[in-house]
Amino acid sequence: MRTKGFNYTFYLLIVPVLLWLVLLIVLPHLDLLISSFQIENDDGLKVFSLDNYVAFFTQKIYWLTFVKTAVYAIGVTILAFIITFPIAFYLTKVVSKEKAGFLILLLLIPLWVGELVTVYGWMVLLGDHGIINHFLMNIGIIKEPITMLYTNFSMVIGLLYMSMLFMVVPIMSTLESLDDSLIEAASDLGASKWTIFRTIIIPYSKSGIVSGAIIVFMLVIGDYLAPNILGGKSSLWFTEQIYNEFLSTFNWNEGAAFGFLLLLLSSSIIWLALKLSGQKLGKVGA
Amino acid sequence: MGNILEVKNVSKYFGDDSAVKNVDFSVEEGSFFSILGSSGCGKTTLLRMIAGFLEESEGDILIHGDSMKGVPPEKRPVNIVFQTLALFPMMNVQENVAFGLKRQKLSKAEISSRVTKMLKRVSLVGFEKKKVTELSGGQRQRVAIARSLVMKPSILLLDEPLGALDRKLREHMKVELKLLQKEIGTTFIYITHDQSEALVMSDKIAVMHDGKFEQIDTPRNLYKNPKTAFVAGFVGDSNRFELQSQEGDSLEENSLLTKGGWEIKKPNTGSVDELFIRPEALILYPKEDREEIEQFQVIIKTILFDGSNTKLSTVVVGTAVGTNEELEELLISLPQNAEFENLEEGDQIPVGIHRDDLKCF
């Protein structure tokens, strides 16, 4: 309803949202953006410069890390999809509702414990003297422990483990609305199981897959714990570069530039993914 | 023509419950066969067994004389139109109809020509590129039927496909489906709980109740000569009376006595538990000289006006009014013509019924 007078309720409700957006999101980012274009001169004064960005492109290690982070984040997202889609399908279409509820609760447990604890858990499992190596040596498959910890492998495991659940949930919610008779109709019309999967189930759950993929991708590309602890010194995750700039070399301006580059990278990859899958951000977000 | 489908003593158990009990029937090629029953009678279970989505616990299903044991749905020469239609929402009309043909690895040219032909047949030309979500109920219906028929199935199974439509459209689609079936000559097996759909469209109807077939017959015979009390009550409208046992009564040899105390001549056939009389079988002001017409007087309680379906709610004169908790109501169809215009509540009028129209079970 539109009234001519000042609509107090409306403004009362919009104020917290605006405060949130402006104070906690827009202003800090603006500040970061500005400082990314500044360097300190010899007098300790801040002056405008493109040096922060130039440094990124001239130092091989920076943009190599950048590319690696992007490639691995995409890879982890794809892996997460491959692993979780059957789980989501099983939980929505195969088991009974009550059982599914219990299983989802099980899936949630790592989330309750927190990422740090689960990451340390993986260290216990994957270490040279960890449970897996110990077991494999005991049953005699290997003589020497396999190095799993502090490699890209352990990093990927950690990233997958903390982000997978965020893929399961949106996929499940689209699959739940999938009418079983669509599957039966396709099978009745002569489609094999694989064809049904490819032509009916996947296209139907596309919006869930894309929104799950966006969440997982963002979580992974911005994650710090798993690459740092499980990946070790060699992991070269871009968030570590940012961390180093801010807290090791105290070059906040460079760090701000890196932060913006990461933001640019993840947004453009997501934009590309949406274009390729023919989805709209509004629809996926809903 | 021979039988295209033979269902031989088929039963289906879910745990201890039996959904379909020893059903045995065959369907003639090119006919429109309906299975009529209320929800939960096992008709959908039966249909799903024919389609191959469920396996029969006992018995066998033969199509063209070949046993379908172990043949999966995608390999059976039958197609099904689902209750929910199950159109693929991510595809347009053309892609929906072409879905099955693509699976057969036919050439693009053949697929497109068959799809076009089929869309013409169901009058959906010009809708090829439309999303199925943009179509009206009747159009979606036709897409679903086209999608199945384009496969040239030996049998088309239809699982209450008209259920979701509004009444007007349903009436229209009934006729359209019947004509379509006549035109293409495919055998249709149609499942419904709506007797009017079954009666209008079918060559033969099987009435199903509690997992069993009560009667398989032509629509006219089902209506005229129901073989069981269930069919008499289920197909068409009926007045139903419970009868008193006649042991030790001073009743006339060939008479019936309802619980309410109405005495009427016993028809030639049938046992004596229940009596069914159709509202439209009753004759108002019958001629008095006809031997085969049973005559009696009724009092009009109310007139239930419903256009062409108007009925008189009456009570037979002489039945124990007031002694029974429930009066035995006798509904009589009231033709909406000038002859009976002046009937009013409370009138006592003579009514007759042909002895053959008294159905006892």
Structural class of chain A: mainly alpha
Main sheet: strand order of chain B: 6-7-8-3-9-10
Helical residues, percent of chain B:
10-25%
Secondary-structure element string of chain B: EEEHEEEHHHEHEHEEHHEEEEEEEEEE
SSE layout and pairing:
The complex is a heterodimer of chains A (286) and B (361).
Chain A: H1 8-36, E1 38-40, E2 46-48, H2 51-58, H3 60-94, H4 97-113, H5 115-126, H6 131-138, H7 152-163, H8 165-176, H9 180-188, H10 193-204, H11 206-221, H12 225-230, H13 238-248, H14 252-277, H15 281-285
Antiparallel strand pairs in A: 1-2
Helix pairs in contact in A: 1-14, 2-14, 3-7, 3-8, 3-11, 5-7, 8-11, 9-10, 11-14, 13-14
Chain B: E1 3-14, E2 17-28, E3 32-36, H1 43-51, E4 58-63, E5 66-67, E6 78-81, H2 93-103, H3 108-121, H4 137-149, E7 155-159, H5 167-184, E8 187-192, H6 195-201, E9 204-209, E10 212-217, H7 219-224, H8 229-234, E11 239-242, E12 255-257, E13 263-265, E14 274-277, E15 283-284, E16 293-304, E17 311-316, E18 329-333, E19 348-354, E20 359-360
Parallel strand pairs in B: 3-8, 3-9, 6-7, 7-8
Antiparallel strand pairs in B: 1-2, 1-4, 4-5, 9-10, 11-14, 12-13, 14-20, 15-19, 16-17, 16-19, 17-18
Helix pairs in contact in B: 2-3, 2-4, 3-4
Q: What does this molecule look like?
A:
The complex is a heterodimer of chains A (286) and B (361). Chain A has 286 residues and is mainly alpha-helical. Chain A has one domain: MetI-like (MetI-like fold). Chain A has 15 helices and 2 strands. A two-stranded antiparallel ribbon of chain A has the order 1-2. In chain A, a hairpin with a 5-residue loop joins β1 and β2. In chain A, α3 crosses α7. The radius of gyration of chain B is 25 Å and the shape is elongated. Chain B has 8 helices and 20 strands. Chain B folds into 2 domains: 232 residues, Rossmann fold (3-Layer(aba) Sandwich), CATH 3.40.50; 122 residues, OB fold (Dihydrolipoamide Acetyltransferase, E2P) (Beta Barrel), CATH 2.40.50. Chain B starts with a strand and ends with a strand. In chain B, the strands form 5 sheets. A 6-stranded mixed β-sheet of chain B has the order 6-7-8-3-9-10, with helices on both faces. A 5-stranded antiparallel β-sheet of chain B has the order 15-19-16-17-18, with no helix packed on it. A 4-stranded antiparallel β-sheet of chain B has the order 2-1-4-5, with helices on one face. Chain B has 361 residues and is α+β, with helices and mostly antiparallel strands. Chain B is 23% helix and 31% strand. The model of chain B has no long low-confidence stretch (mean pLDDT 87). At the A-B interface, α9 and α10 of A face β6 and α2 of B.
